[in-house]
Design goal:
It is a single chain. With 152 residues, the chain is mainly alpha-helical. It folds into three domains: 45 residues, no CATH class; 47 residues, no CATH class; 41 residues, no CATH class. The chain is built from nine helices and no strands. The chain is elongated.
Amino acid sequence: MGVRKKYTDEDVLQVAKKYEYLKDFRREQPTLFNISFNRGIDISFLKKTKRRKKKFTDDEIMKVAKKYEYLNDFRTKNKNFYLLAYTRKLDISFLKNAPSRKLNKDGYRNIGAIVKQEIHSDMFQIAKKKGITLSEAVTEALGKYIVDNDTK
């Protein structure tokens, strides 16, 4: 193992004076930055960089939005531009609402949803009278329907 170099406060200041921005000093000399922080060495002469936000025009935002067919795709795949369009109240009504992918052809998630929609249907009443579950009543009715259609 090598011998660790011991830095004095003056050594840290001399190296820090080579940099204009605090960010550069911290990135390129992390050890000396930590030493200056822990010892409380005043390096306030280094400038702090300001974040430069890129400004987008409305046309640029609309150009990106036109790449998408559905609003949800635009919202999830390019969140920053969606938020810019939303806050600037840009007209993105040309984007369609995505159809739900989990529905069957009737617009229901499953057969139980159809039955729940018509809770006072004959099936429900029959199941209630017989004291059986709704799925048993449906199975029974489907069995009779198949038998009736086979005999015709």
